[in-house]
Amino acid sequence: xxxxxxxxSTLSVQEGDSAVIKCTYSDSASNYxxxxxxxxxxxxxxxxxxxxxxxxxxxQRIAVTLNKTAKHFxxxxxxxxxxxxxxxxxxATNNDMRFGAGTRLTVKx
Amino acid sequence: DAGVTQSPTxxxxxxxxxxxxxxxxxxxxxxxxxxxxxxxxxxxxxxQYYEEEERQRGNFPDRFSGHQxxxxxxxxxxxxxxxxxxxxxxxxxxxxxxPRGAFFGQGTRLTVV
Lengths: 109, 113
Hints:
The structure holds two protein chains of two kinds.
Chain A: E1 4-7, E2 10-14, E3 19-25, E4 32-38, E5 45-51, E6 56-59, E7 62-67, E8 72-77, E9 86-94, E10 96-99, E11 103-108
Parallel strand pairs in A: 2-11
Antiparallel strand pairs in A: 1-3, 3-8, 4-5, 4-9, 6-7, 7-8, 9-10, 9-11
Chain B: E1 5-7, E2 10-13, E3 19-24, E4 31-37, E5 44-50, E6 53-57, E7 64-68, E8 74-78, E9 87-94, E10 103-104, E11 108-112
Parallel strand pairs in B: 2-11
Antiparallel strand pairs in B: 1-3, 3-8, 4-5, 4-9, 5-6, 7-8, 9-10, 9-11
């Protein structure tokens, strides 16, 4: 089955800096890669996604890149704000989602 | 639109007991997946239901079983509970042919004592 690895496990940045989270996957048949944000005690919320026929996608301060050949994808958050503090999960999908272990992002004011 | 709803929100069970968790998918969604999220970890895929059949299964023992009803709602059953089954159980729904990610319910926090 699919195996998704996510790094780093924790990330601390200063407000206004950029944050980058990286994931790799093993199943070359995976074709859809969502990212979720989970705040403490809440459900995971979809924040951005990318399909395998696209190399990059941007939505305001958030962008995702995908290298299908290398089987890795990344989340980029620019101009970070304290409200970006949360746990972020990447996932790879081939019929169903398999998640990485998560990255706890802390944005210091 | 109520989104994905799960019940109950919290549950305490004794080791060896059985538990049933329920999920109502978002309106228009026909596929339901269940995940187990231990504290500080990512959601682990348990299984997926579509057209009332289990379509895919993760690496979970047969003690974990499920069901999907004609109205697309779903149940997760866990038999012979172990202390290690304590976790947040998340249900996620989507429309099978949709390219978008799944939407999660708020989860059921199961504590096994």
